[in-house]
Prior knowledge:
This protein is mainly alpha-helical. It contains nine helices and no strands. It holds the Pfam family YitT_membrane.
Amino acid sequence: MLAFAYYHINFQNHLSEGGFVGLGLLAKYVFDLSPALMVLLLDIPLFLVAWLVRGRQFIWDTIFASLAFTGFYELFEQYSPIVMDMSRMMPLASVLSGVLTGLGTGLVLRYGAATGGDDILSLLLSKYTGLSIGTIFLLLDVMVLCLSFWYVPMKEMLYTILAVVISSQVITWTVKSGTGIAVEEEAHAHGNVSVTHQ
């Protein structure tokens, strides 16, 4: 679901994104590098650090989720015949992007994993700087989105911001609908993200 949305909606309609996925999309536009490969390269060192900090099961689950995203994005990029040109319906593109990426991320978080290295980085920075995880997420997203101004026109950037806000809300709703200790921890963390994005 995440890979489908990021390729068919975000990339094809020039919507950017925060976090490592945003850096991956930036690498695609600027250097013509695979976003999936870029995200994987950013994820690997953080997986190694988080192995010691968060525990083995968390890392295995996160690695599985990250590799699944990478694999499906590559498949869509190379073989998908679907073209979702929403250039005349950008509000709809923003809503679809926000809902699908938020739902995909929220489902991963609900079951005690993370969607990639940017989640892990936010957890680590929050732990060692004393800043809330919501503040860390916001700072990372703002930095990536500021870089995206280099290639994303103002109008499309505004639609990107709308998609990010919707995504943060959907993540919160999806995670809160789950049960269990891991779910409650992630719901609390990403609930803070939702508040800071508003």
